Amino acid sequence: MGNPKFSTRAIWAGEKDSLAFGATQVPVVHSVSFGYDDMDEWYDVAIGKKQGHIYGRNTNPTVQAFEEKIRDLEGAEAATSFSTGMAAISNTLGTLLYPGDRVVSIKDTYGGTNKIFTEFLPKQKIDVELCDTGDHEAIEKEVAKGCKVLYLESPTNPTVKITDIERMAKAGKAVGAIVIVDNTFATPVNQNPLEMGADLVIHSATKFLGGHADALGGSVCGDKELVDAIYHYREINGATLDPMAAYLLLRGMKTLKLRIDKQCENAMAVARYLQTVDIVEDVFYPGLENHPGHDIAKEQMRDFGGMLSFAVKGGVDTLRHLLPKLKYANKAANLGSVETVVGPSRTTSHVECTPEERAAMGIPEGLIRYSAGIEDSEDLIADLEQAFQSLPKDLFVH
Ligand SMILES: *Cc1c(COP(=O)(O)O)cnc(C)c1O
Fold first, then answer.
1. Is the distance from the beta carbon of residue 241 to the nearest atom of ligand 1 less than 6 Å?
2. Whose alpha carbon is nearest atom 5 of ligand 1?
3. Is pTM, for the whole model, over 0.85?
4. Could you tell me the domains of the chain?
5. Which of 23, 197, 203, 284 has the fewest Cβ atoms surrounding its Cβ within 10 A?
6. In DSSP terms, which residues pair with 309 in a beta bridge?
7. What are phi and psi of 241, to 5 degrees?
8. DSSP letters along 35-81, please?
């Protein structure tokens, strides 16, 4: 028998070690502490000489099953987990960066990540250099000046820009930087950054991994020594994943490949349809041949993902009419769920920016982020069509 493939691992990885009482499903262990009558055994577990659990802030059997599953799917040496994706990001940067250090990243990281770079790290005298996303020469030039961390995300929010991870990891390695990739949008179904030379891969498990918009969580996978240090930071600082959330994420991950394959298919169909609509000015999806990152995406991703965005003529006025008309889409801030989710970028990912700042970042006021669900693509397209047709005819005559 060869090595098991993705869906087999998504089902079985991490499960067996956490079962008890003949149960076939991982139990949700709510117990805050784990008791010992044998003082020597307790001591051995406490100092890590023997496998076991002591206190829920540190480790928990349900949480451990989640960590083992994501570790396996990312092909990593080690993994640890967090209460949210932002906790994974802030704890990782908190572990690695000290006053005087320098970090290089891109302008289009997730909104919360961008806030860490622009608001919190500078207060700690950590130098942050944010390069134009997709400008590989600019990133290489900044990295070559030396940095402790090179932090990437690909594809990005909301215009799904693509960065060449292998090329950037090589640049990072040349100066001894720790290369981190936020893989939330691609998921391990479509891309494994560790195989491309990254040291750490981060997920907001809240999105595609869980896939049902009912649990918050985050993970960091990679080199064991780094992950151990990040785990230590988290166990002391306390951003622990809740066992019930870990259970929901574990359950969601079993269908990860089925969901992602369908979401990629739907995103592609919706993107192609949107290209034919008159009032749609622009469609951003890496699967489209005219997307600036298409060639790199084709090289480094197995499929193009479930996220796209499009800009409508008439800006905010149009989306105010259009979005409420959609029947098969939640108008909400999350993404990656089994239901289609839509939202204006001005309200979701880039709500903190002024219209001028958004324009400078190439985000038109009429940009809509579209997270394709697993519905039938014919229905999603028909839904968009009826919404476009319902727009007041005088909307564009000013
Ligand atoms: C949502 C998101 C995060 C933050 O995750 P939370 O679970 O909401 O804290 C980080 N990175 C990306 C790309 C995201 O989409």
1. no
2. 85
3. yes
4. 6-253 (3.40.640.10), 256-389 (3.90.1150.10)
5. 23
6. 284, 369
7. -70, 135
8. --S-HHHHHHHHTTSS----BTTT--HHHHHHHHHHHHHTT-SEEEE
